[in-house]
Recover the amino acids of this structure.
């Protein structure tokens, strides 16, 4: 079991945000967390991330990119702790062609192949999100935790990005507020409303009432 929460309340200071929530997530599941702004999605993902920090590739909602560094350097940082110091210094000064090629292949999948040496501050919001997703893939983990990683992408790029993530990661927990994308790209949906789980179901078992419920969760 990757996560097992039993009547867990999650708070900031003394304010409860998620109220006595329970669920389990197994390795191999692809879970979408749906809910409108303020429902507690980021709080939940941060909580899960803090339980097992080193196990995931994590895309926080604010992306945590360094604006005045290049796309290459931002993505490279994801592997800093897996390479030796000398190799890291060399790459930060003069990127090795092995790393460049690896990254170009990933960026290509997100229609960003011409941006490898662009500074982050010169990119659009949607391009930044795709850099953060490329960095998550470059990190080379089996599990992805991603917090609204496609909120600035159009429908075509969103579907393409989610398909690539699905192909790359064995396990995904991803917050979204698009019901259709959640149903089309994930195995299971957890719907949050005002800090409570109001639906938790496999997509293959969703009936009409559940889908109405999911729209209610997101409105
Ligand atoms: P979502 O990601 O679904 O938009 P959040 O998890 O960001 O929701 O927020 C859920 C609730 O927690 C909101 O009421 C928000 O104001 C509150 N909250 C978020 N971050 C903090 C924080 N750092 N300190 C106190 N309250 C917070
Ligand atoms: Mg959020």
């Amino acid at each position: 079991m990757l996560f097992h929460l039993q009547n867990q309340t999650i708070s900031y200071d003394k304010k409860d945000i998620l109220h006595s929530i329970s669920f389990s997530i197994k390795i191999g599941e692809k879970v979408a967390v749906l809910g409108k702004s303020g429902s507690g999605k980021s709080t939940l993902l941060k909580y899960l991330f803090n339980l097992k920090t080193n196990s995931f590739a994590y895309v926080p909602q604010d992306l945590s990119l360094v604006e005045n560094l290049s796309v290459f350097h931002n993505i490279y940082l994801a592997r800093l702790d897996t390479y030796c110091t000398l190799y890291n210094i060399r790459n930060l000064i003069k990127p090795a062609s092995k790393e460049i090629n690896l990254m170009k292949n990933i960026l290509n999948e997100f229609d960003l192949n011409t941006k490898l040496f662009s500074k982050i501050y010169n990119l659009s919001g949607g391009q930044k999100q795709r850099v953060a997703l490329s960095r998550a893939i470059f990190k080379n983990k089996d599990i992805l935790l991603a917090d609204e990683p496609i909120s600035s992408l159009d429908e075509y790029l969103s579907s393409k990005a989610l398909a690539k993530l699905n192909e790359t990661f064995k396990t995904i927990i991803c917050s979204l507020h698009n019901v259709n994308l959640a149903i089309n790209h994930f195995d299971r949906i957890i719907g949050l409303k005002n800090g409570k789980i109001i639906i938790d179901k496999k997509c293959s078992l969703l009936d009409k009432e559940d889908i109405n419920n999911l729209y209610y969760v997101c409105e």
The chain has one domain: 3-218.
